[in-house]
Every structure is written in structure tokens, then in C-alpha cells.
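Exercise 7. Predict the joint structure of the components listed below.
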Amino acid sequence: MLTLSTQLNTYLVIGAILFGFGIFGLVRRPSLIGMLIAVELVLSGASINFMAFNRFLAPDPTVGQIITLFIMAIAAAEAAISLSIVIAVYRNYKSIEVEDLVELKG
Amino acid sequence: MNPSLFSPEGLAGVIFLILICVTMIGAIIATCTKRLIRSVSGLAVCFVGVAGLYYFLNSPFVAMMELLIYVGAVCVTIAFAIMLAEPDEARLARKLSGLSGGLAAICGGAVSFALGYAAVNGHWMAPAAQVNDGSLKMIGQSLLTKYSMVFELISIVLLVAIIGSVALARAGRRGN
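Solution:
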């Protein structure tokens, strides 16, 4: 039990569970911000997988760390853009729930 | 094989178990609470646990970046957005019940089980030799030599994201 931190499988299972929680929240949440939070969980599950393979299996252990840093940068950009979209949607519809955003124009 | 509880390895193992618990509790809070502000707090707790896991994976630099960027920036930004666009809590609570919860649990459980099954039963090949130690110095060197193009592209993406979010927020205000 106490040597779990030296096994690859531990990290892979943690990453899979975080990914599953992300999918769970993505389907369950009725609001846009809740879905964004779930997407962050999915991304961190993927990052944990990258870091675990980087530590245990990669011949060059800088690659996974750099990929994880890039995932963080992309996640920050994604959060900024999607939150400003959420604010713009809220100004127009007075709601951020997915079921209210059914009007299409085009 | 099993270290005793009070040796350094045993204490590290206990801390690792605590970090796993923190991560999982944070993920549960982030997905299962009704109020969004609690959900963001759960997300921050989950990211603190993930940063600890990165520390156990021999990369304290990535752990610090996780704390700075995710806990310090992304969670705070989401909290600001919740303050600006507060959803109607009563309607949300009414909609949450019923079919969608069960369907979501089935989807998430299936994806999680499939990934975990594949990870545990997969046959992973250990590397022949590691070419460097993955320290912060090596990360900096490869960021400025091998991955310099990607590094520049990431900065352009961040710049475009900043300008785009400002433009989007202004466009919404003009229509008001």
C-alpha cells in the first residue's frame, strides 16, 4: 500500500478516474461554467497520464514535462476565451444554461 | 518490500495516499455540488492534489506551475465569471434530478473503467536508458532549442486568446 507512488499503474488509474469525473460532469452539468470546470478535470487527467509515462517510460524525461506545460498554457487560453464567450452569452440571453441557448441565426 | 510506517519511504507513501484522497474528494466536489462556486473550490482542491502527484513524479517545477496557473489563475478567473453571470440556482437544482444524472454516471463510469482497464492490463516497455535527468536545467535547454518553435507558437496563441477575449466581451456590451 505504501509503495503505490513508485508504480506506473497508480498514476494511470488516477488519470482515468479524473477523466471519468470530467466526462460525468460534462454530461450532467446544465450550465456552461459547470461544463468548463468539467473540461478542466479532463485536461488534468490527460496531463497526469503524460507525466506518468514521462517519469516511468520515456527515454527523454523533459518531453512530458514540456507537454504538460503546453497543456497548461492551452487550458489557460481556453478558459479565458470560453469565459468571455459565457459573459457575452449572458448579456444577450440573461442565462448561461445550455437548454436556453437554442436560437440559431444564419 | 513494504517499508515500515515511520521510515521516510513509509511517510512518503502516507503523504501520497493523502494526496490521492485530496484529488478524488476535490473531483467529487467539483462535479457533484449544486452551487457553482463550491464546484470551483472543489476544482482548486483537486488541482492542489494533482500538483502533489506531480511532485511525486520527480517534477517540482511542473507542480509549482500547476499551483500558479491552475489554482492561482484559472480557478480565480472562473470564480469571477460566476460572480458576473450567476446562474439561477433554483432552476438548476430542479433540472439536475432525473435521467441526466444516471446517464452521466454511466458515461463517466464506462470511460473511466475502460481507460483504467486498458492501463492496468497494457504491457508497457521500460526504456533502455534515459538520456538526461529531466531537471529544470534540461527543461529550459530543450524549451529554447528543440521546442523553441512550439514555445513561440504558444505565446502567439496566448496573445490571440487575450485579444479575442477582450474583443468578445466588448462585442457583447455594444449589443446591449
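Discussion. The radius of gyration of chain A is 18 Å.
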